[in-house]
Amino acid sequence: MRAVAWLRIVEFAFERVELHLARGSAPSLPISDRAGVVREGTAQNTGFTDAGRVDLVVYSLIRADVAGAHVSGK
């Protein structure tokens, strides 16, 4: 996931990549945390599933995060 985000920022000159995950998507949340993307918060009642409306956890990676990782060797 991080590699795809980096590719968008470095190769395609995106300024920001966002990931929105349903709060109830338990397996996906720790993977996102380990990938090094920044957890920004929860957008309440924003998403839709077959079960109805859900809260979405918002993650992002911005150009400054990638530039900082190059400097620190992450």
3D shape: elongated
Derived structural class: alpha+beta
Number of strands: 3
Share in β-strands: 35-45%
* Helix percent band: 25-40%
C-alpha Rg (nearest Å): 14 Å
- Main sheet characteristics: 3 strands, antiparallel
Write the element-wise H/E pattern from the N-terminal end onward.
Answer: HEHEEH
Contiguous runs where pLDDT drops below 50 for at least 5 residues = none
Strands side by side in the biggest sheet: 1-3-2
Report the average pLDDT across residues.
82
Euclidean distance between termini CA atoms: 15 Å
The number of distinct helices, counting runs of at least 4 residues, comes to: 3
Tell me what you see in this structure.
The chain is α+β, with helices and mostly antiparallel strands. 35% of the residues lie in helices and 41% in strands. The chain contains three helices and three strands. It has a three-stranded antiparallel β-sheet with strand order 1-3-2. Strand 2 and strand 3 form a beta hairpin. The longest helix is centred in the last third of the chain and has 10 residues. The model has no long low-confidence stretch (mean pLDDT 82).
Write the layout of secondary structure elements.
Elements: H1 2-10, E1 16-22, H2 28-34, E2 38-49, E3 52-62, H3 63-72
Antiparallel strand pairs: 1-3, 2-3
Quick synopsis:
This protein is α+β, with helices and mostly antiparallel strands and 74 residues long. The chain has helices spanning 2-10, 28-34, 63-72, and strands at 16-22, 38-49, 52-62. The longest helix has 10 residues, at 63-72.
